[in-house]
Every structure is written in structure tokens, then in C-alpha cells.
Amino acid sequence: MELKELEQYQRHHENFEIRVIAHAGSRYYQVMLEPEDGATQALTRRGKPMLFRSLDDVYGELKQAGIHRAYLVQQVANDEIVGHDPHYHDPLLSRMPLVF
């Protein structure tokens, strides 16, 4: 989903979650949109996934799209290596709320 599409999406929908994914062993962050139907989409630019070097960069882009809340999620290295689907809701403490 492009940044402009995210901006329009958030105007018309209320039940969605923005996740800032921090991959273990990486310095980059990726932003994901998860609507209530569960069809997760990555934030893209010109068709390629956007990767951010800092949380400040994430905040700037999301604020520009009108987003003011998100969850920081650490993807565990073990899940990446073994190939398990990440379970961000179990436990709930694995998600840290971000307000900007």
C-alpha cells in the first residue's frame, strides 16, 4: 500500500492497526497495515516495501499520512529462522504502543 493510499484508507476506516516491525538482527523497520479482516499489507513506495532506518523516520512518514498511533513489534529471530508465523498478540506484551 502506497503512502497516499494509506492516507485515504485511514480517513474511511476506523478498525485497523499499524505495526512497525523491527526484525531481529536488522537495523531497519518496516510498516505494516492490518485491517480488521486480517489482510496484512506492507507500506510501499513505487511498488517496493519501504524500510526505515530509525523510528523518527517512521514517525515522520506516518504523521504525514495522518496516523498518530502504532505498535512496535519485535519479530523474534527464532520465528524467522524456523519459519513460524509471528504471533504478535500472544503475549500482548510483545507489542509496544507508539503515540506520536
Give an account of the 3D structure.
With 100 residues, the protein is of the alpha+beta class. 26% of the residues lie in helices and 35% in strands. It contains three helices and eight strands. Strands 1, 2, 3, 6, 7 and 8 form a six-stranded mixed β-sheet that branches. The protein is globular, with a radius of gyration of 13 Å.
The largest sheet, given as strand count, sense and whether it forms a barrel, is: 6 strands, mixed
The percentage of residues in β strands lies in 35-45%
Count of discrete alpha- or pi-helical segments spanning 4 or more residues: 3
Q: Sum up the overall morphology in one term.
A: globular
User: What average pLDDT do the residues reach?
Assistant: 83
Coarse structural class: alpha+beta
Secondary-structure element series: HEEEEEEHEHE
N- to C-terminal separation?
A: 21 Å
CA gyration radius, whole angstroms = 13 Å
Strand segment count? 8
> What kind of assembly state do the chains in view correspond to?
single chain
Helix content: 25-40%
- Residue runs with pLDDT of under 50 for 5 or more positions: none
